[in-house]
Amino acid sequence: MTKYFAFLIAATLTAGACARESAQSLTGPSSMSSSTAATDGSAQIKRYTLSGTVESIVKPATPLRNARVQVRSGADEGRFAVTDASGGFALSNLAADRLAITVSLDGYATWAATVDLFNDGTIEPKLEPLQ
């Protein structure tokens, strides 16, 4: 319970030194690569990648091309990626933060989720066709 509570506190902090230290100590090392970016010449913050595959919820699930995966809140608000032919996407160089993510495509209901990004992460949105 203490780790979970501390994680929630870390998720609400901005990308200051305290948030970086809390996020690193709570999430541990990542098996994926991350990058470090200097913000003011002396302080450095970790940057991460959020990737995944967007599919239709209808069985059999099919990959959805040209879906827009967008960051709706957080330090990187407004950033987006468009899925490729296999439904894949990657949003790289994102600051550690709590992100609101939406996935939209004409003819499908919009998918939304909140992602705590303190390591490279993966999401697998399933979109429902509109009736």
Question: What do you see in this structure?
Answer:
The structure is a single chain. The protein is an alpha+beta fold and 131 residues long. It has one domain (2-127): Immunoglobulins (Immunoglobulin-like, Sandwich), CATH 2.60.40.10. Helix content is 17%, strand content 39%. It is built from 2 helices and 10 strands, in the order ααββββββββββ. It has helices at residues 2-12, 17-27; strands spanning 35-38, 44-53, 55-56, 68-71, 80-82, 88-95, 97-104, 111-117, 121-123, 126-127. The strands form 3 sheets. Strands 1, 2, 6 and 9 form a 4-stranded mixed beta sheet that branches. A hairpin with an 8-residue loop joins strand 4 and strand 5. Helix 1 runs antiparallel to helix 2. The longest helix is centred in the N-terminal third of the chain and has 11 residues, at 2-12. The chain starts with a helix and ends with a strand. Mean pLDDT is 76; it is low at 1-34.
CATH superfamily: Immunoglobulins
Specify the CATH class. Answer: Mainly Beta
**How many helical elements?**
2
| Tally of domains | 1
Question: CATH architecture, please?
Answer: Sandwich
- Fraction in beta strands: 35-45%
pLDDT below 50 for ≥5 consecutive residues: which ranges?
A: 1-34
Largest sheet, in brief, is: 4 strands, mixed
